[in-house]
Write a structure and sequence with these properties.
- This protein is of the alpha/beta class and about 220 residues long.
- The chain folds into three domains: about 110 residues, Rossmann fold (3-Layer(aba) Sandwich); about 30 residues; about 60 residues.
- It has nine helices and seven strands; from the N terminus they run βαβαβαβαβββααααα.
- It is elongated.
């Protein structure tokens, strides 16, 4: 199976979490914080789920099938998070037949959506790391190592800040999208711009970038 990494706006998604334990609670909380409409179906629920009035909880015997099939039909993304392999496999097959997005927290190979470890770095850059179910601990450690490295890198911070402002300048002053695209790489490969980046001098880097762009305005 080949995956394409995507960042998706979850605010319009209806998410069904099957399983009310620790894992199901974490996934429900994550999707809820992203603005999704979250329903959890289970025989029992964690205290966290019962206290959170924004999450719709439905007590049902999943093994019976009727209720769960109806709920799968009504939702966009199905999270499988019970400790019962038979139930998990049954839910997976139902969701697969209905063409749903499936995040299987118990067996990544029986699903089509991976829930990665996410960490915010710099001002508005996120990294997401997954081991495709092989080792969550290793994936988390990799994400933390990436963040630690980037947080200490003044060059990357200067590059990000100067390019962020440079992009705004180009959009305000140059209507030609092809030229804007070309200018990003002209500036990136400019030796003077690069020298400011290496020093972590984002203000001088931005001034140099604008100086280059003005030749094309």
């Amino acid at each position: 199976m080949v995956y394409i990494p995507l960042f998706i706006d979850a605010s319009s998604l209806k998410v069904l979490v099957v399983g009310g334990g620790m894992v199901g609670s974490r996934r429900a909380r994550s999707f809820l914080s992203a603005g999704a409409m979250v329903t959890v179906v289970a025989k029992e629920f964690s205290e966290e789920l019962l206290k959170n009035k924004a999450i719709n909880t439905i007590e049902a015997d999943i093994e019976e099938g009727g209720e769960i099939e109806k709920l799968i039909e009504q939702n966009d993304l199905i999270v499988i998070a019970t400790d019962n392999k038979k139930i998990n496999d049954k839910v997976y097959e139902m969701a697969k037949l209905k063409g749903k997005l499936i995040n299987n927290a118990t067996d990544a190979s029986k699903g089509n959506v991976i829930f990665p470890f996410r960490l915010k770095v710099l001002d508005n850059i996120e990294v997401a790391v997954t081991s495709f179910g092989a080792s969550g601990i290793a994936a988390r450690r990799v994400a933390e190592r990436i963040k630690d490295t980037i947080d200490k890198d003044k060059e990357l911070e200067a590059l990000y800040e100067s390019m962020k402002e440079f992009k705004k300048y180009l959009k305000d002053n140059i209507n030609n999208a092809k030229l804007r695209y070309k200018l990003y790489f002209i500036v990136e490969n400019d030796k003077e711009y690069e020298s400011y980046i290496r020093m972590g001098d984002k203000d001088s880097a931005l001034r140099r970038a604008i100086q280059i762009a003005k030749k094309f305005v």
